[in-house]
């Protein structure tokens, strides 16, 4: 589902997404309140959410959707590279943040990956955020397995993919991810991925669509 207050942007995104047979746009909203209502009605896998909209803005709408419909992933799609805006969107529960100059192919990849719960950040967004990530004076003590999971998480792998690559059970991956977030004092997989990039475990571009 698409949420943007500009009709031309909504139609452009719909056209972009229609180029892939496996992606279907089920609805479009012109503001945050309509986005929340349509998400409840249509139950899409992904909401592409503009952030600056009249009435209920995209950040507030994202928070409501993630709280009330946690199975629906939200990807922020914005023309702005403001650190606070990016941080607010991710804090509200967006699984990623893409810039509106993202091309059609990258958008397709990002939507598919976000549907699997993978972190999706435009390279410029990742680079901006990494600079602001706080690294504690005493680094958290991750086990070797937790570090392996963190690296794959930061590279955009979903839990099932991590389980297959490390030859462990999906439930074990969930436990490792939970422990990682606790040790890093992180609220989301995205924050954990940014930490991994900040300390050099993965390149800054690793969380971008690929």
From TrEMBL:
Per the UniProt entry, what are the Gene Ontology biological process annotations, in alphabetical order? Answer: phosphorelay signal transduction system; regulation of DNA-templated transcription
Q: Does the keyword DNA-binding apply?
A: yes
Entry-linked Gene3D superfamilies: 3.40.50.2300
Residue span(s) of domain HTH luxR-type: 135-200
Q: Which UniProt keywords apply?
A: DNA-binding, Phosphoprotein
Instruction: Report if keyword DNA-binding is assigned.
Output: yes
Among the GO molecular function terms of this UniProt record, one is: DNA binding
Residue ranges of every copy of the Response regulatory domain listed in the record: 1-115
Q: Which residues form the signal peptide?
A: none
| UniProt cross-references to InterPro entries, sorted A to Z | CheY-like_superfamily, NreC/VraR/RcsB-like_REC, Sig_transdc_resp-reg_C-effctor, Sig_transdc_resp-reg_receiver, Tscrpt_reg_LuxR_C, WalR-like
Supply the name of the protein. DNA-binding response regulator
Q: Name one Pfam family in it.
A: Response_reg
Q: Which positions carry 4-aspartylphosphate?
A: 50
Q: Which species is this UniProt entry from? A: Dactylosporangium sucinum
What PANTHER family does this protein's entry cite?
TWO-COMPONENT RESPONSE REGULATOR
């Amino acid at each position: 589902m698409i949420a943007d207050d500009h009709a031309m942007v909504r139609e452009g995104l719909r056209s972009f997404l229609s180029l892939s047979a496996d992606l279907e746009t089920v609805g479009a909203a012109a503001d945050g309140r309509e986005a929340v209502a349509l998400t409840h009605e249509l139950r899409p896998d992904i909401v592409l959410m503009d952030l600056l909209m009249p009435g209920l803005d995209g950040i507030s709408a994202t928070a409501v959707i993630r709280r009330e419909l946690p199975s629906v992933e939200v990807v922020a799609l914005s023309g702005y590279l403001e650190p606070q805006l990016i941080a607010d969107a991710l804090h509200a529960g967006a699984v990623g943040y893409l810039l509106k100059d993202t091309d059609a192919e990258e958008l397709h990849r990002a939507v598919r990956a976000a549907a699997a719960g993978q972190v999706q950040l435009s390279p410029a967004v990742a680079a901006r955020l990494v600079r602001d990530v706080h690294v504690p004076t005493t680094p958290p003590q991750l086990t070797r397995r937790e570090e392996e999971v963190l690296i794959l998480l930061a590279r955009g792998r979903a839990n099932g993919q991590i389980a297959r690559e490390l030859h462990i059970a999906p439930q074990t991956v969930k436990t490792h991810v939970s422990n990682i977030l606790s040790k890093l004092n992180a609220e989301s997989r995205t924050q954990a991925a940014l930490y991994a990039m900040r300390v050099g475990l993965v390149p800054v571009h690793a969380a971008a669509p690929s």
